[in-house]
Amino acid sequence: MFETINMKILLPELILICTGLAVILLDLVLRKKETVAFIGVAGALLSAYYNFSLMSLGWSGAVFQNMFVLDGYSSFFKLIFYISLIITIFISLNYIKTERVSSGEYYSLLLFSASGMMIMAGAADFMVLYLGIELMSLSLYILAGIMRERRTSNEAAIKYFFLGAFSSAFLLFGISLTYGLTGTTSIIEVAEALNRLGPAGRNITLIAVIFFVTAFGFKVALVPFHMWAPDVYEGAPTSVTAFMSTGPKAAAFAVMGRVLFYAFGALQLQWSAIIEPLSIVTIAVGSILALSQTNIKRMLAYSAIAHAGYASIGFLPGTQEAFAAMINYLMIYIIVNLGAFAVVVIMRREGIMGEELSDYSGLAKKNPLVAFLMLIFMFSLTGIPPLAGFIGKFYIFMGAVEAGYTKLVIAAVIFSAVSAFFYLRVVVYMYMKEAAEPSVLIVPHSVKLVLAFTSIMAILLGIFPSVLLDFARASLLG
Amino acid sequence: MVPLSWYIVLSAVLFSIGVFGFLVRRNLIMIFLSMELMLNSVNISFVAFSHYLQSMTGQVMVFFVITVAAAEAAIGLAILIVFYKNNPTLNSDEINLLKG
Amino acid sequence: MTLPQIFFAYFAVALTGLSLLVVTRRNPVHGVMWMLILFIHVAGLYLFLNAEFLAAIQIIVYAGAILVLYLFVVMLLNLKKIEKERKFQHIWIVGLLVSVAFLTLLIPLLGKFSVYPPPGEYSVERINSEGQIMTVGRVLYTKFLLPFEIASLILLVSIIGAVVLSKRKLN
């Protein structure tokens, strides 16, 4: 009954989990709390190293009776998660001290959430998928509310928790219907069983797909399931928001792709038809509602909603090419978004929250380098060439036009132009308004590293677009 | 013999009542209870499928769903208590510090 | 109506009625009490479906641990003003419409559910020959080992969360 379990495949996740455990324990004995953070980063780097060496040695495959896989698909997403995790740890170092958050639990919860995301990316069975989603989400609910004295943080945690649990119930209902139709929860076997079923039970399969899309729509914050995102992003601690808007969003897309493409590949036309109106409404609502925001975290939340809409256009053609464009877009968006949040984090100093747009007035005179980097990030988020954001949107739109969604792409381009208003408003504040108070901006070394990395990637990926896209295509093929 | 569809319809009815409770109630604890109702309805459907399809996967899935529900209850109630300490109300429409 | 169908009809009516009672009670303690009876009925339904281990787990964990936790929290948060407040939100019509839409869409489609895939290997006789717990245990520790381990992590996260959110401030 027992077969040799190939534990090597789980090594990256195991390393990250053990790092999380080590962080909780060592937090009790270490005096200098930054060491704990560096242990976290070391663990993440070690895990990444093993992941990519396993892939390059050809060790990919399934383990635990096809419940978990290590393949190109999951490795690309894991790269996104590693970047998100490491950058979040770096920008949290000083932020945590200012906000007086207990560091051991914070970093270990970040690590557990990242492990949950990696389990989500590599899941080949609905049970493991659900448990990975829950592991990631539960850690995030706690992280959103970890600044206990702050009422905004409490509110963010409550809203995130209730809506996240609601969406998990929908996901479970979808899984139960799928299990009832096919007798199995393994994604590959579900696909085979649905093929064998043919047109019988097609209605019920469609209901299951609707439940899945609803649940993933909540996680990704597609309209009309986006209600939680602005409040949660605004209320949570800024470093947690940086993490939430990048890693978990990509993880939700990973799971969505795994389920829709691999399990429900037979119903591709139907779920494309369901997602199409959702994407365009998401882009519209995200872009329009961002125009009136004065809080930069809230504005970045609506921008995240709009970007999720742009990314979900990659689902519509239903081809691997379009999906490669989508994961390319996600990687670019996440790097740039982390850079923008890094700037927001350093605006928080003693006595100043730094979250209103007016706090950015005159930044160009106070600290010209930071202002210039923020300009790069804002331009990239808008999609102005030659920065990376333009390349991401270009490939997605091209894939959609080739599949015949021309009207959708025209609308998306129009909203892209509309989005310039609120992104460039930040640039206007930085460069053309006078500073309210002459306080100095301290940029910690870790954040300097983050800003350098993200801005350089934003420029490089814009100038050499095909590098990332070819890597994405190769990953999807295995 | 009870047909399988009766169980699934019962599960759907309970799920809908849970959704109704979630969307309609003001008190946060009652919203939380409605969520537990939704999870229970899904559990019923899993166990029914497990019996009629003669497969153990459903029962094991219920095992994990109950575990996660317990973990969620602990975290959710902790969040509720922290919220209540700062803000002594449990009505969902009075949570409007973050506008929108 | 055969005897099993009568039993099922009782469970169905009881569960539906109890769930309606749970979501419409004003006092959270009353809601929790009705929920307790609902959980016991669900455990009865599991017994009916030959899932004895799950019935026991349902009562021990759900009714015995989770509901007790709820009751503790409800008692801790001293809610005195409940009687004078509104039960439902202002826009309760929307919630009612959404759930009625759910019902009208789901019931006709799900009413035609029949058993599609070929039957698996765990028939009632086989489970009863080995014993419930043996079967569940055998499957849980061999085929579903990975989810089991992840579930243990989820419980750890929940412990960390509960402690970090509710501990007293350290000076």
Which features would summarize this protein structure in a list?
heterotrimer; B: 100 residues; mainly alpha; C: 171 residues; Four Helix Bundle (Hemerythrin (Met), subunit A); 2 domains; 74% helix
Q: What name does the CATH topology of the largest domain in chain C carry? A: Four Helix Bundle (Hemerythrin (Met), subunit A)
- Terminal CA distance of chain C reads 69 Å
Oligomer: heterotrimer
Radius of gyration of chain C: 21 Å
The parts of chain A where pLDDT drops under 50 for at least 5 residues are none
Q: Classify the beta-strand content of chain A into a percent band.
A: under 5%
How many strand units of chain C? Answer: 0
Classification by helices and strands of chain C: mainly alpha
**Main beta sheet strand tally, sense and closure of chain A:** 2 strands, antiparallel
> In terms of per-residue confidence, which ranges of chain C show pLDDT below 50 for 5 or more consecutive residues?
none
The tally of helices of chain A reads: 20
What does this structure look like?
The complex is a heterotrimer of chains A (478), B (100) and C (171). Chain A has a domain at 267-478. Helix content of chain A is 76%, strand content 1%. Chain A has 20 helices and 2 strands. Chain A has a two-stranded antiparallel ribbon with strand order 1-2. Chain B has a single domain, classed as Orthogonal Bundle (Helix Hairpins), CATH 1.10.287. Chain B is elongated and about 55 Å long. Chain B has helices at residues 4-24, 28-52, 57-86. Chain B is mainly α and 100 residues long. The model of chain B has no long low-confidence stretch (mean pLDDT 90). The N and C termini of chain B lie far apart (51 Å). Chain C contains 7 helices and no strands. In chain C, 29% of the residues are buried. Classes of the chains: A mainly alpha (478), B mainly alpha (100), C mainly alpha (171). Chains in contact: A-B, A-C, B-C. Chains B and C meet through helix 1, helix 2 and helix 3 of B and helix 1, helix 2, helix 3, helix 4 and helix 6 of C.
